[in-house]
Write a structure and sequence with these properties.
mainly alpha
Length: about 190
């Protein structure tokens, strides 16, 4: 289209797409939410959530730190070009995580319900099934990215092809994470 893609343009596109996504999600929520829910007053167990908040914040912060450690270290060592290529490889590898996020979103209420009813056997079956599904879907995505790593990095320009081996290693790691299931969601629910 002849557009110049620079940092301000990409940030603007990110903001516009985020606002558009928020508007669409809000509209879908209002349209599909059962009307009977409007008359129900919410009940909260604030004490339980306060006790759980610190460990959940620590887990979330640790996950963010682990996700960015490679970029931080490469940038700190002065290898900004390598940090950028690694960041690209890392973010492409995160695509393998999409089935896990979708499954977590879909089954989190069921896990919470089974836990509340102390039905640990059904919860174990559900969690095992979710882990199997996310691994299979993640494997399909990882296999495609593994094969297409070289042309994918070449698409970004000369010098980026050095990120293909890192992407392949990260894909393997993402598959290991997918095979372990949804630990953080289970703990949260």
């Amino acid at each position: 289209l002849g557009w110049t893609l620079d940092a301000p343009f990409v940030m603007g596109a990110t903001v516009v797409s985020s606002v558009l996504g928020l508007v669409c999600a809000g509209y879908a929520m209002r349209r599909h939410r059962p009307r009977i829910v409007d008359d129900i007053f919410p009940a909260y167990d604030a004490a339980t959530w306060r006790r759980a908040a610190i460990p959940l914040v620590i887990l979330g912060a640790t996950e963010c730190l682990v996700n960015r450690t490679g970029v931080i270290l490469l940038g700190w060592m002065g290898s900004t070009k390598d940090a950028g290529i690694y960041s690209l490889a890392f973010n492409i590898a995160l695509v393998v995580m999409m089935p896990r996020v979708a499954m977590n979103t879909l089954f989190a209420p069921a896990i919470s319900d089974l836990y509340a009813r102390s039905d640990r056997e059904s919860m174990q079956v559900l969690i095992t099934r979710i882990a199997s599904w996310t691994f299979c879907a993640g494997f399909c995505i990882a296999a495609a990215l593994f094969v297409l790593a070289d042309p994918l990095f070449a698409w970004f320009g000369p010098g980026y092809e050095t990120g293909a081996p890192a992407l392949r290693i990260l894909l393997f790691g993402q598959l290991m994470v997918a095979s372990a299931g949804s630990q953080l969601y289970v703990m949260t629910m």
